[in-house]
């Protein structure tokens, strides 16, 4: 099923972009993975896996990491920081809220 494969690829890209944002914020704050893990109440391997592979995480983990970084959880999900491919549906563009 082609549609499912496309969705899987998009989900993988989204997870990897969250991992990239976590790493960018962690490095910009001069934190090691262990320091962030301690702040987030997680094992270092959870931070490492997220940053390296885009490991799928729970909301609890997302909030813990956001708290550890001192940012809103939504900022870790903000696709505007990393451009994702545009949705092929032209109507999707019109439904996007502009600021």
Backbone structural class: mainly alpha
Largest sheet: none
Strand content: under 5%
Principal-axes geometry comes out as globular
Residues in helix, %: 55-70%
**Number of separate strands:** 0
SSE topology string? HHHHHH
Distance between the termini: 37 Å
What is the averaged pLDDT score?
84
Give the count of helical stretches. Answer: 6
The unreliable regions are 93-99
Textual characterization of the structure:
By secondary structure, this protein is an all-alpha fold. It has helices at 2-28, 33-40, 44-53, 59-69, 73-77, 90-94. Helix 1 (2-28) crosses helix 3 and helix 2 crosses helix 3 (44-53).
Task: Provide keyphrases for this structure.
mainly alpha; 99 residues; 67% helix; single chain
Brief digest:
By secondary structure, the chain is mostly helical.
SSE map:
Elements: H1 2-28, H2 33-40, H3 44-53, H4 59-69, H5 73-77, H6 90-94
């Amino acid at each position: 099923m082609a549609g499912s494969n496309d969705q899987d690829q998009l989900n993988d890209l989204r997870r990897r972009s969250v991992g990239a944002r976590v790493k960018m914020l962690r490095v910009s704050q001069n934190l090691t993975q262990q320091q962030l893990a301690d702040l987030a109440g997680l094992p270092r391997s959870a931070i490492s896996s997220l940053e390296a592979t885009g490991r799928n995480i729970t909301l609890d983990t997302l909030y813990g990491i956001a708290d550890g970084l001192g940012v809103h959880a939504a900022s870790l999900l903000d696709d505007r920081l990393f451009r994702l491919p545009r949705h092929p549906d032209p109507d999707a563009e019109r439904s996007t809220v502009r600021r």
